[in-house]
Amino acid sequence: MASLCYSLPLTLKFSPLNTKPSPNLSFNQPKSKVRLPKRSPSITRMSLNPTPATDRLISVAAYSLPFFNSLQYGRYLFIQYPQLGTLFEPILPFLSLYKSVPYASFVAFFALYLGVVRNPSFSHYARFNSMQAVTLDVLLVVPLLLTRILNPGRAGLGFKVMVWGHTGVFVFSCLCFVYGVVSSILGRTPYLPFVADAAGRQV
Questions:
Q1: If I label 40, which of 32, 53, 84, 165 is the partner at 20 to 30 A Cα–Cα?
Q2: For residue 166, how many C-alpha atoms fall within 13 Å in the half-sphere facing its CB?
Q3: What is the pTM of this model?
Q4: Residues 42-94: pLDDT tens digits?
Q5: Which one-letter DSSP state was computed for residue 35?
Q6: Where would you find the membrane-spanning parts of this chain (predicted)?
Q7: Which string of DSSP letters, residue by residue, matches 98-112?
C-alpha cells in the first residue's frame, strides 16, 4: 500500500498522456536580466572662443587702419562738438605711434594686403577681416577725391554738403571700427555693409 502511494504521484507527474499544463500551475519564470556594460557619458568640450588669439589680434589691428585714416573726416564734427574729443583720448597714443611712421598708411595697407590677405599660411578668419579693412580703407579715399575734384569752397550749399558727407563717412567708419573690433575680440566674424561681399570674393 505504501509502495502504491509513492508510485501514484510519480505516475501522474511523468505520464505522457498528461500533456496539458494544469491551470493552477504557474509557469512564469523570472526573466534573466542582461546587464550591458555601462558607458561613461561622453563630455563634449566646446571652447567658448575657438578663434585663436593671434587671429583676433590681427583682425583688431586691421580694423584700426581704416579708422585712423578716417579721422580726417571728423574734423568738422569735432569743431562743432569739442567734447567728443574726450571719447578718442584713449587711442591718442596709438594714433601718435601710427603717425610717427613715414608713409604709415601705405605701409600698413600693403602689409595687410600682401602679408596677410595673400598669405595662405594665415587662417581664413584673419584674411577675411584684413580684406574687409583694406576694402574699407580704399573706399574712404573716394570722398577725398570727390572733394578735390568738385572743390566746393568754404561757404555755400556745396560746403554744407561736403561737411555732411564727411561727417557721415566718419560716423560710418567709427561704427565699422567698433563693430569689427568687438566682433574680433569675441572671436566672431563681422560682416561690414558695402564691404563684406567684395572682401569675400577676394579671399
A1: 32
A2: 23
A3: 0.70
A4: 333 334 558 899 999 999 999 999 999 999 999 999 999 888 888 888 888 88
A5: P
A6: 97-116, 128-150, 162-182
A7: HHHSTTHHHHHHHHH
